[in-house]
């Protein structure tokens, strides 16, 4: 049940990161600069972020099975539109459809976890969800690059659309919202659930200070990882370290893999210690230090840079503890809504930072071209990446005001 939701989340991460590997093709075919490319990639995030509260409400009221099925079907249509797009507008619409549709996956997974798994496994499952997603991101690294070189990006995306459509059929056939539908005992609260009006549900969820603090902090912690690994890391490494696109993709994939592998361990440790805030704060502090060293210092040797990125990816995995904090700080009946708000903040970082970094690159562009594509110097990249680190600095201040939940669900 949970694994099929994870499969859609995997596809969502694949779609999220894919533009980083085909930047050359997209910039050349659609005649894009850095800001326009950042906006094309960010169309995914615009709809993804906008869907998070509706996705939480759908998961609470409509059920994960229906939400996941509809999400996979619309994602298949959006991917096909992107694959066949004759121009920038159609490609942007395809990305918009993809982002909004796969936006239901993570929230539905959290809702399924609350029914099919014991509460003491929630933070670990949040970390495993990240691992599944990053597996999709890694498949959009070197494997996607090799497939694009062999068959062309449009053909590869068309096959991805077909596989996503097949997943919609499998989810509808196999997934059930609660174990009782299969004759098993459920971990969900047994008390009858009364669904308040939608706006009242959102107000009830946001009444917890922790929920909106996690909303703001998560975007700062995960934003740099998704911005660097999902778009600007490959051109940065290719330009300033003389790497091929495949080699640069391997390094950005390493960042994401470290993020994914550390996620379940951080979640399980938080569950075991029955503490949330210390691990959440420690991860944010270490991630800030890692990004500062990796991206702001000129002339970092490539081996050291790889180590720094791996370390920073592991530290950034603490963002998954935030989902447990949000879920435990809201009423149990609104777990999906709380997860949606938290994930909305989580994606807000990359939604804002991908085009913002591109805008800063264009502002500091020295006029250089290579094969018809703009080339940006280190100073331009440093100015762009400084925006990410500034948000992280604000998040460190906000962390002081987060309340410890001790792994207990709010009543």
What does this structure look like?
It is a single chain. This protein has helices spanning 2-21, 23-29, 34-61, 64-84, 88-102, 104-116, 122-139, 142-151, 153-174, 198-206, 209-241, 245-273, 277-296, 302-316, 319-329, 335-363, 378-399, and strands at residues 368-370, 373-375. It starts with a helix and ends in a 12-residue tail after the last helix. It has 17 helices and two strands. With 411 residues, it is mainly alpha-helical. It has a single domain, classed as MFS general substrate transporter like domains (Growth Hormone, Chain: A, Up-down Bundle).
What is the radius of gyration computed over CA atoms, rounded to a whole number of angstroms? 20 Å
| Name of the CATH first level | Mainly Alpha
Q: What amount of the residues lies in strands?
A: under 5%
The side-by-side strand order for the widest beta sheet comes to: 1-2
> Which residues form runs of ≥5 with pLDDT under 50?
none
Strand elements, count: 2
Number of domains: 1
Briefly note the CATH topology name.
Answer: Growth Hormone, Chain: A
Count of individual helical segments: 17
Q: What is the helix content?
A: over 70%
């Amino acid at each position: 049940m949970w694994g099929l939701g994870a499969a859609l989340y995997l596809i969502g991460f694949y779609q999220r990161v894919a533009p980083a590997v085909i930047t050359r093709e997209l910039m050349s075919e659609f005649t894009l600069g850095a800001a326009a490319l950042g906006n094309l990639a960010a169309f995914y995030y615009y709809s993804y972020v906008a869907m998070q509260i509706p996705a939480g409400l759908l998961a609470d009221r409509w059920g994960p099975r229906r939400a996941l099925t509809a999400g996979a079907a619309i994602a298949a249509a959006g991917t096909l539109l992107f694959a066949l797009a004759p121009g920038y507008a159609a490609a942007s619409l395809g990305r918009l459809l993809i982002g909004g549709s796969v936006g239901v996956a993570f929230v539905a997974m959290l809702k399924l976890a609350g029914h099919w798994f014991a509460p003491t496994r929630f933070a670990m499952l949040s970390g495993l969800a990240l691992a599944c997603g990053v597996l999709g991101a890694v498949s959009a690294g070197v494997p996607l690059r090799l497939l694009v070189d062999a068959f062309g990006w449009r053909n590869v995306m068309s096959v991805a659309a077909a596989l996503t459509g097949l997943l919609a059929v499998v989810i509808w056939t196999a997934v059930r919202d609660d174990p009782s539908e299969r004759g098993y005992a459920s971990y969900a609260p047994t008390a009858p659930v009364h669904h308040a009006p939608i706006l009242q549900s959102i107000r009830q969820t946001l009444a917890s200070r922790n929920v909106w603090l996690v909303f703001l902090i998560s975007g700062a912690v995960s934003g740099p990882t998704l911005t660097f690994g999902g778009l600007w890391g490959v051109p940065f490494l290719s330009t300033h370290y003389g790497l091929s696109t495949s080699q640069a993709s391997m390094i950005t994939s390493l960042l994401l893999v470290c993020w994914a592998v550390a996620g379940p361990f951080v979640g399980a440790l938080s569950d075991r210690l029955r503490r949330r805030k210390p691990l959440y704060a420690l991860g944010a502090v270490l991630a800030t230090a890692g990004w500062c060293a990796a991206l702001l210092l000129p002339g970092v040797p490539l081996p050291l840079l790889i180590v720094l990125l791996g370390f920073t990816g592991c530290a950034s995995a603490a963002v998954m503890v935030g989902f447990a904090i949000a879920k435990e700080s809201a009423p149990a009946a609104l777990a999906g809504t709380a997860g949606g708000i938290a994930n909305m903040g989580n994606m807000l970082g990359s939604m804002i930072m991908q085009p913002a970094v591109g805008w800063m690159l264009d502002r500091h562009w020295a006029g250089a071209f290579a094969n018809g594509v703009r080339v940006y110097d280190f100073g331009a990249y440093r100015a762009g990446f400084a925006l990410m680190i500034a948000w992280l600095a604000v998040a460190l201040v906000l962390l002081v005001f987060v309340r410890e939940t001790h792994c207990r669900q709010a009543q």
